[in-house]
Amino acid sequence: MKFYTLKNDQKLPAIGLGTWKSEPGKVGEAVIEAIKSGYRHIDCAAVYGNEAEVGEALKTAFAQGLVAREDLWITSKLWNNAHESDKVIPALQKTLKDLQLDYLDLYLIHWPVAFKADVGFASKADEFLTPEEAPIIETWKKMEEAYNKGFVKSIGVSNFSLKKLKSLLVDATLPPEVNQVELHPLLHQEELLEFCNNNSIILTGYSPLGSGDRSQEMKKDDEPNLLENEVISKIAKAHDCSPAQVLISWHLSRGTSVIPKSTNPKRIKENLDSYKIELTEKDLQQIKTLDKGYRYVDATFFEVPGGPYKNIYDE
Ligand code: A2P
User: Residue 289's CB: how many other CB atoms inside 10 A?
Assistant: First the structure.
C-alpha cells in the first residue's frame, strides 16, 4: 500500500474507496468489504446522503476488530450551504455524528461555491450567496478552527482551480493539505498538479473511472467511456489487468491519490490491487496523448443566469 505524507506528517493512503453515488442499502456493505480487502481510506461527503450508513458500517468494523480507528483515514466535505462562519462547525459536527466518529482525518470545502443555508442544491440566482456574502477565506478560517480544536487532523479543499488555490494560499494561516478534483486520462490538469507538487499539496482524483453511474441528467449523450478507451484497453491487455486497474495505477504513477467508487465486492478488491500494476514510460506517454481537458462532472451548472458564480474553473 502506498501512502503520501502530508506537510503535517499525516499519512494519506493513496487509494481510497469513493462513496459518491453509492446507494443506500449498499454503501455500508461496500465499506465493510473495502476494509476487509485492505482499504484504509474512505472518502465521504455530507451531500452524498449516505454518511449515517457509512457510520454504522464503521462502528461494526471497529466492533469486529477489522481495523482500528487510528489505522483508518476518513475524509468528508463541507457542503455548499454551510459556508457561513456560524454554519461550518455545526455542519462538521453533524458529519461526525452521522459517521459516529470523534474526529475526521481530512475535511474539505466541497466547492468554492456558497448556497443559502436552507438550500440543498441551488439552481436559481437568489439561492446562492455571493463571494462577498460568504468569502472563502472566512469559511477557511473556520476550517482552521476545526483543525486547531482537534475535530479534524487535516484540512483541504475540493474543486479549486489553480487561481482559487493560489488566492487561498495568500490569505490562509494554515495551507490546505489536499485539493480533490476530477482527474483521469482525459483530464490531466498538469498545471494544477505541478503547482500542487511545488507547494506540497496532494491532489486527489475523483471520477477516476469516468463515473458512469451518474444520474441521467448529469450525463451528456456523447460522453466517452473511459473503461472502454482503446489505448487504456491495450495497456491493460499488456499488463494482464483490467482497464480500471490501469486508470487507477496511472494516478499512483503521477503521485496523486485516487478514490474509485464501487459497491461490488469483486471490483472493490480489484481496484485496490491496482497498486501492483507498474505502468511503463511508454504506457504513460500513450496516456499523455489522451488528455483533452474533458470533464464528466461539468459544474458549469453553478453558473446560473444572473448568479454570482461566472467562471467555476477559471479557464
Ligand atoms: P460498481 O459500483 O457497480 O462497481 P467513478 O469512481 O469514476 O465514479 O466510477 C464509478 C463507476 O465505475 C461505477 O459505476 C462502478 O460500478 C464502476 N466501477 C468501479 N470499479 C470498477 C471496475 N473495476 N471495473 C469496471 N467498473 C467499475
Answer: 9
Catalytic residue among 39, 48, 107, 147: 48
Going from the Cα of 263 to the center of ligand 1, the distance in angstroms, rounded, reads 8
CB of residue 52 inside a 6 A radius of ligand 1: no
Is the CB of 117 inside a 6 Å radius of any atom of ligand 1? Answer: no
pLDDT (tens digit per residue) in 265-292: 999 999 999 999 999 999 999 999 999 9
Q: Please, which residues have CB within 8 angstroms of residue 93's CB and are 6 or more apart in sequence?
A: 151
For residue 214, how far is its CA from the centre of ligand 1 (angstroms)? 11
Helix (H, G, I), strand (E, B) or coil at 3: strand
Q: What is the ipTM of this complex?
A: 0.99
What is the Cα–Cα distance from 20 to 82, expressed in whole angstroms? 19
The whole-angstrom separation of Cα 220 and Cα 215 is 10
Residue whose CB lies within 8 A of the most ligand 1 atoms, among 50, 246, 267, for a mutation test:
267
The question of whether 48 is a catalytic residue gets the answer yes
Label residue 293 left, alpha or beta by phi (over 0 means left) and psi (-120 to 50 means alpha). left
Residue 110's CB: how many other CB atoms inside 10 A? 20
Predicted confidence (pLDDT) per residue in 192-245, tens digit? 999 999 999 999 999 999 999 999 989 998 999 999 999 999 999 999 999 999
How many A from CA of 232 to the centre of ligand 1?
15
- Alpha carbon distance 191, 208 (integer Å): 18
